[in-house]
């Protein structure tokens, strides 16, 4: 018993603590999606705490923002007999709906491949770490296609050099979230690196949810789809009647 107590004290010793630690915060921890929502910006700010002189090597910071994961299917189209049809498909268990990486410098320089594989920081690692169900001969090409599509849609971003250092130990990163956000929790990870190795990490969460009319319509569509469909038809009919009436008045 005495040996166990000594072991606990030894592991808890300050001398074994990380030589540098991240102390970070967010400008907001909740985002409301309303009828006029056109995106928002999250400020990630913080400082590097150390009790000893700075170690040798340049200090770097990486910030990742990951949206809720959703299952999806990536299909390949082939031209057969003059018609484009879906052929092979890859089913992805869960892919981030949004993924952004902000860094103080080139990602391949400030983070080693081994650390990237361990923490799944780069967009490529984040996607390839998920489960795949495929009968295709080359599933990696489907994942690469998904990456191209998500970057083209601005759902994936690599913002190298966008994290700024202030007075050596203070840093800030501004990450813009698009208007087409998926409702749920957005995970924010902050990494401190030296010489390509991760020294310390810190996690934060931002909640995104619909509010007001957007939330009412979303709940109505999911909880009472029949009523939602009838209401949509009624509104469409009312809009058509109003337009025809307005044209009739204008012709007089």
Automatic annotation (TrEMBL):
Membrane-spanning residues: 226-249
Superkingdom as given in the UniProt entry: Bacteria
Residues of the signal peptide: 1-17
InterPro entries: CHP02186-rel_TM
Keyword line: Membrane, Signal, Transmembrane, Transmembrane helix
Name assigned to this protein: Transmembrane protein (Alph_Pro_TM)
Classification of source organism: Bacteria, Pseudomonadati, Pseudomonadota, Alphaproteobacteria, Rhodobacterales
């Amino acid at each position: 018993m005495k040996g166990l107590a000594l072991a606990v004290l030894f592991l808890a010793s300050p001398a074994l603590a990380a030589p540098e630690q991240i102390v970070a915060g967010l400008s907001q921890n909740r985002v409301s999606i309303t009828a006029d929502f056109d995106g928002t910006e999250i400020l990630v700010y913080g400082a590097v705490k150390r009790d000893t002189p700075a170690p040798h090597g340049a200090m770097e910071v990486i910030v990742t923002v990951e949206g809720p994961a959703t299952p999806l299917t990536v299909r390949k189209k082939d031209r057969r007999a003059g018609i484009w049809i879906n052929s092979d498909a890859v089913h992805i268990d869960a892919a981030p709906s949004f993924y952004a990486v902000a860094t103080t410098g080139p990602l391949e320089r400030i983070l080693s491949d081994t650390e990237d594989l361990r923490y799944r920081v780069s967009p490529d690692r984040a996607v390839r770490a998920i489960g795949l169900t495929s009968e295709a001969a080359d599933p990696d090409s489907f994942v690469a296609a998904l990456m191209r599509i998500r970057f083209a849609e601005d759902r994936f971003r690599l913002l190298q050099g966008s994290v700024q250092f202030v007075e050596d130990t203070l840093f800030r990163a501004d990450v813009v979230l698009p208007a087409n956000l998926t409702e749920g929790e957005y995970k924010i990870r902050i990494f401190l690196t030296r010489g390509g190795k991760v020294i310390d990490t810190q996690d934060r969460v931002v909640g995104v949810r619909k509010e007001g009319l957007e939330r009412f319509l979303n709940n109505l569509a999911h909880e009472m789809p029949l009523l939602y469909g009838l209401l949509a038809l009624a509104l469409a009919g009312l809009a058509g009647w109003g337009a025809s009436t307005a044209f009739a008045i204008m012709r007089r």
